[in-house]
Amino acid sequence: MRRGRRSSALAGVLAVALAFPVFAVQPDEVLDDPVLEERARELSKGLRCLVCQNESIDESNASLARDLRLLVRERLVAGDSDDEVIAFVVERYGEFVLLNPTTDGWNWLLWAAGPLLFLTALGTGAVYIRGRATATATTEAGLSEAEKERLRKILEQ
Predict the structure, then answer these.
(1) What is the predicted pLDDT for the residue at 30?
(2) Which of 43, 72, 95, 141 is found 20 to 30 A from 129 (Cα to Cα)?
(3) C-alpha–C-alpha distance, residues 83 and 80, integer Å
(4) Which one, of 25, 19, 91, lies nearest residue 57 by Cα?
(5) Does residue 25 carry a pLDDT above 80?
(6) What total of structural domains would you count in the chain?
(7) pTM as predicted
(8) Does residue 152 lie in a domain region?
(9) Other beta carbons less than 10 A from residue 98's beta carbon
(10) Helix 82-93 crosses helix 34-45 at what angle (to 10 degrees)?
(11) What Å distances lie between residue 35 and 40, 55, 67, 100, 156, CA to CA?
């Protein structure tokens, strides 16, 4: 009984370990030239699956990701450089296809927005805390004589 649990636990661990590095590249997509295949895999890791959006086309099982993997391989076989392949895919699908977008053009604003907003929030917080520290505490005015007399009468009842 004890041995059965151990072997089933080992089988479960092995199944998870072996399934972890699985990529979506099908055997019929693999190029014969190992150098070109390695270049294709590296390029595929930097291109976003437009269906899954958080996976590279190298990891995605979507049909569009397969089409993009085949397109990358076709361009490499045709003799394009890595930059030319990326430029072709970006021209066709837009810059969203890049997992790591460039900082050219208006994209610099997107890259700078996070740190700029953080610094703005830090400055606003510092001004607020400094203003609170230097503010004079307001004291409540005591009861007037008429209010004291009225309170005394209420308490006596």
Answers:
(1) 79
(2) 141
(3) 8
(4) 25
(5) no
(6) 2
(7) 0.57
(8) no
(9) 15
(10) 40
(11) 9, 24, 21, 24, 99
